[in-house]
Structures are given as C-alpha cells and as structure tokens.
Amino acid sequence: MAKDEDKKEVPADIQMHPEGSGSKLPALLAILNLLLTIGIGAIVFIQFKKDKNKEVVSDIQVVAPEHGGGEHGAEAKAGEHGAEAKKDEHGGGEHGGAAAKEAEKVISLEQFTVNLSTAVGAPPKFARVVIAVEVGSSETSVELTQKMPQVRNSIIDLFNSKRPADLQTGEGRNFLKEEIRNALNSFLVTGKVKGIFFSNFSVSG
For residue 45, what are the CA distances in angstroms to 38, 42, 148? Predict the structure, then answer.
C-alpha cells in the first residue's frame, strides 16, 4: 500500500511544475506588451514634438518679414510698399529712371574718319570725330539705330563738303552740327534730333 501511495504522490508533484511555468508565461507576455506600448507611445510623442517644433519655426519665418502679423503686419507691409513708392518718386526712383531715359536718348555713333575738301594738288586732309546724337524719344532712338547707314552717309557727305579752314573755328563747327541735325531730321519719322555733340574732334593730314 505504501508503494501505491508513493506512486500516486509522484505524478502530483510532477504536475506542479508545468502549472508554475504556465503561470509565468502570461505575466511575461503582459510585461512585453506593456513595454511595447510604452515604446510606441514614446516614439509617437517624440515625433509629435518634432512636428510641433517645425510648425513653430515656419511660423517664425513667416511672421518675421512682416514685423509682426495680423493687421499690424499688413500695415507694415503696406508701409513698405508706400516707402518704396516714395523712394521711386523722390529717392532716386523717378529721378534715376528719368536719368536712365535721358541716357537712352543720347546715341553715341562710331568714330568717323572722313576726307575733307581740298584744292587740286593739295595734300589730302581728313577729320577724325566722335559724334553723339540727342533725340526726343525712345522711338526716335530706335528709328535712328535702324537707319544708321543713312545717318552715317549723310554725315560723311557733309564732312566731304567742308574745307579744313571751315572747321578750325568754333563757329564753323557749330554750323556743321546744325547741318547734321537738319540732315538727320529730313528722314526721321517718329521724332526729331534735338542736338549734335562732338566728343572728339581733330583735323589732320
């Protein structure tokens, strides 16, 4: 009987060990699940903080140029445009633009080297001159540029008709300027030549 009782007790002891190991498994799974949940939550929280920081930076970048934001930012922006408009009117904008337009209306021609009228048997004389033409509008400037062969031909013909003595005085050169101006105005359509200038003038030979 003792042996039978011992045999019955042994299986009972053996069954205690599986039950103990089985009770630990759910606890381990619960701990792992908790750690996994905490880890995912931490990742989501960090990502949220990063996104929030990005939004703050972008907001600062937008607000800073406007010196504020809302109505004050709009007023500041409008003030900037107003300041730019005033600058154009008074601070070199209008005057600078006008000066640029005036510069565009003065056309500098390539240097002329032309023969002058001389007596038969006399040594040849020639003039070397750089001419600038002042016109009344940009349209006339364009037309003058398009008709440059005709412009140069008219000027060369006038110089060929002059004697060296005709160009030795200021009065003679001014008369030639007037002749050039009239010659160019005779074929211009969009406007008129306002003035002729000699930036370099010499007679040699």
Answer: 10, 5, 76
CA distance 187 to 116: 24
Farthest-apart Cα atoms in the chain, separation: 166
pLDDT value for 101: 52
Exposure on the CB side of residue 154, measured as CA atoms within 13 A: 21
The two tokens of residue 69 are 């934001």
105-204: in CATH 3.30.200.20: no
Tell me the whole-structure pTM to 2 decimals: 0.51
Distance of CA 112 to the CA centre of its chain: 38
Average pLDDT, the chain: 74
Q: What span, in angstroms and rounded, lies between the C-alpha atoms of 155 and 179? A: 9
Q: For residues 176 and 162, is the Cβ–Cβ distance under 8 A?
A: yes
Nearest one of 24, 43, 44, 20 to 32, comparing CA atoms: 24
Query: How many CA atoms, within 13 angstroms, populate the side-chain half-sphere of residue 14?
Result: 6
User: What DSSP string runs through 11-27?
Assistant: HHHHHHHHHHHHHHHHH
